[in-house]
Prior knowledge:
two-stranded antiparallel ribbon, Farnesyl Diphosphate Synthase
Amino acid sequence: MELRAYMEDRAAKVDAALEAWLPEAERPPAALHAAMRHLVFPGGKRLRPILACAGAEALGAPSDRAMPMAIAVELVHIYSLVHDDLPCMDDDDERRGRPTVHVVYGEATAVLAGDGLLASAFECLTRAPGYEAEQLLGAVGDLSHAAGSLQLVGGQVDDLSIGERLPGADEVEGIHLRKTAALMTAAVVGGARLGGGGHDDLERLREFGLRLGVAFQIADDLLDRDDDEPCSSVRVLGEDGARARAAELIAEAEARLAPYGAAAEPLRALARFSIGRDR
């Protein structure tokens, strides 16, 4: 398959769905809604929502079936970026070549914009028509767990606590599992769930997503290897060791897709892309 064309097509669908879902920037309170949209448009590669689409497709469902999860997981991801950029966190003034939300709208509005994005994500999932209640509740459970204190938020706390000390390889991978892999896993599993996946399907794709997510973060560490980042696989494994670990994880992830044949080719291609990209 031609991955670039696939990603562009799915990203365009996600963009249209996000545009239709989010309040317009001019809708009162306008400053809040403009701040909420600041990092959503223009977006990045939309990898997490595309993974949700591919999760549904692996089970033979159309990508549109995963769209409520695609929107929700992207909104949670962007909420996390808005909050990560705050001065009390990573204190970043720029993201994707643009000033961060707190730089443009102020810290208080940035915090509230993140809160608004998080709430909007779960509203989108719970209000989606045409699904069984069990499917939506399962997707809400997957996403809320991934975003909570045992996963994304807890991983961020542990990342911030490292400071200048040298962590162990297991500690770094544990943080990667929670900060990065949990949300990617929720995307794949949620898309599959809305696409009609059964228990065995969801467990296989959960194992796929966890490995993909850690490998993706290792690839980020390799791209940022010249930065002074304490929680880095390169710092604890070395450059060659980090590349080997990422390749091992992707091989394990792809093995979980064997039962799905050609239908899972988008997931396989996205897995390879995750460690081969230049940003």
